[in-house]
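Internal tracking record. Fields below are filled automatically when a chain is submitted to the structure queue. Please do not edit lines marked as system-generated. If the sequence contains nonstandard residues, flag them in the REMARKS field before resubmitting.
Queue: standard
Priority: normal
Entity type: single polypeptide chain
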Amino acid sequence: MKLVTFTQGGATRIGVLAGDAIVDLAVAAPQLPREMCAFLAAGAEALAAAKQAASSSSARVALKDVKLEAPILRPPKILAVGLNYKDHIAETGSKTPEVPMIFNKQSTAVTSPHGDIHLPRASEQLDYEGEFAVVIGRYCRHVPKNRAREVIVGYTIANDVSVRDWQRRVPTFTMGKSWDTHCPLGPYITTADEVGDPHALDLKTWVNGELRQSSNTSQLLFNCFDLVEHLSTAFTLEPGDIISTGTPSGVAAAMKPPKWLKAGDVVKVAIEKLGEIENRVIAEPENTPRI
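SYSTEM-GENERATED OUTPUT FOLLOWS
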């Protein structure tokens, strides 16, 4: 299944993608939660009910008539990984990490799969990072690697948009990674049963039609099962948590000179079996909240 969050007629709810339409679960399976984290927390029975409802013809709305939102509007946690592709480690000249390099993106960074990315007032060093993202489906702790599949409900696409000068100011990455609109996510969650091997997927990123990143999840230094084991050693993973697994080579910061994103640029990230997200860069609007 491809699980979506969408807005129609001023109401936001969840559904299942069916070609050029969405099966509205609020109509087809009204007993189910209407928010994605609550739906995932309802477990296998909710997933089975959604799968059965996906064949409904009376509950369909045309994809063109809705706005696709990020599949998880406010993830409980966004856990990201630095230096996790061998080619990206090489282009940065960094030492290969011995354990996963984990940092947080704030959940307020999430934006829709086609939402605008803000070029900050405070920096011009705006960069893209196309990433394969894991979606947690169960509360879990101390998950061994050989059981990590059991807690992953599916996968999606993230763009780990980065403000490089803010990122480099201090050893921790949070301030450089968490700006509003700097985590485009989507366009849907593809359930794990449809993906098969998550470590054999092509990943590509384009800027204005120019291919900048081209790799495969087989090149991950620490794969998604390694990451679930590592993270769950320290804290509970929750339904709707996102693990953004790192980016391959081709980022703007590694170019000579760097090709920072500017207003008007369009960034597209596509991952095999997971679809694509496409986001335009705009100057941070004057009406963004300020004191």
